Amino acid sequence: MLPSTPTRPLLGSKTPLFLHPQQTFCNFFNKNPNSQMGTKPFSSKSPSSLPAEAHRTTDAEAAISLQEWQGWGTISPVPSMVKQVIQDLKLLEKDIDSEMTFDGNHGKLSGDFKVHEDKKHRAKYASLGNSEEKLQFFSARQIACRLLGSRGYLCQKCWLPLEDCMCSKVTTCSLWHKLRIWLYMHPKDFLRQNNTGKLLWQVYGVQAASLCLFGIVEHEEMMWNELNHAGRNKVWCLYPNKNAVTESVKDGVGSAVDPANEDGIMHFILIDGTWSNSNAMFRRLQDRAKLVWGQELRCISLNTGVSLMHKLRPQPSWDRTCTAAAAIGLLYELQLVPEFRSFGLEKQAEAVETALEVLLKALTARRLRMGRSISRRERHNRDIC
Ligand SMILES: [Zn+2]
Q: Where is the DTW domain (predicted)?
């Protein structure tokens, strides 16, 4: 993987959304397994006094059911490559007679099993014929490991450890029915506790704010079917590419849609990944758009002004590039467009702001409880959210 940088591209440098870029929500809650949980490996299974052979999960238990898969916040079928990777992991367990264990964050393999699996997946990766196959395998493997490691550890809805579940404090809200948000998420952000994109479907529901995992064919097909149906003029990507022409929300969206007409649904794609990963994600979207429409996706950038600034309740730990904040900014800017004034977008944005505050509190409480500093000295570690 490319090295990551501590910034993310969603809002662009001209966006003065939050004034404390040095104090980022993302970096505050960096997941450094060594600093957070110690290096003790966690098993995906409950401890048992039975002999290892007896408590090893069966193939049926290891498989991901549709219900379990969709419980994590998606409406797609279980991706076939993810199923395959899980089967291969179980086979490897048998072959080497060593149980799968996971690191402190439950997202990566650890210990002896990891050593064997590393060799195996590298060989598999090298054997794949082209970059598309490699990407799909990379994504499926990431997702499979996170799914198995997070079982019984994370709450499926809020992606927090079960003892920190914040679900009872989240208030849902209907997003205006003409809007649909796609969280185009990098596999490394899937099931991350401090990911904020997940808040969007927690608040608006999975039909209004849908997860689309980068490199997962079932997800990308589902999204592109909808985008095709809507047509290029109803689709925007919130990503201010330096080399691409971006429009403002007012000019781009405001002029394209007359909400009084039965114009169909407007789709907004938010790229949910680190800066370095986002470039590849953006390229993949644009390649597909050119294939489908012969033209690139329309890109919008937020150009927040005074009116937006004073509506937001700035939190020093919110990153101006955090995904939920991007959605909040988008809704506030749409609200300023005269044609969109009467759809309650401000209230819908506030619902996510409130959820973001709840997440921040939950993560802070967890950190304090585990005896970790809440200072931001670790901000240069890997960025996420
Ligand atoms: Zn929860």
A: 151-372
